[in-house]
Amino acid sequence: MQKSGNKVESDLLFEEIIKNMKNPLRDDSFISAATLLHNFSTTLRLKQEFEVSAELLEKAIRVKEKQLGTDNDIRIAYLYNELASIYETLESFEDAVECMEKCIVIRD
Question: What is the pTM of this model?
Fold first, then answer.
């Protein structure tokens, strides 16, 4: 685990990885791309960078949907649930409700 003194270095590494990552919607390793996006989203959420975290999670959802060939899978519901939580933090309540409604449809 990096110390907080290395924050700039970790931010630069993150930016470099994202910049060099293939388009995750066309990447052959969908699972890796979706997992990478999800993990970075979680890291940014912990750093309270909620807007960028939400963007990455939205991309992870699109990748996962393409990977699974459906938008009706419990793993996608899990990602929507996380996204709803971020939207709630951002006080974007309509978006949060929309995500939770998608979770309900998937679970039914």
Answer: 0.74
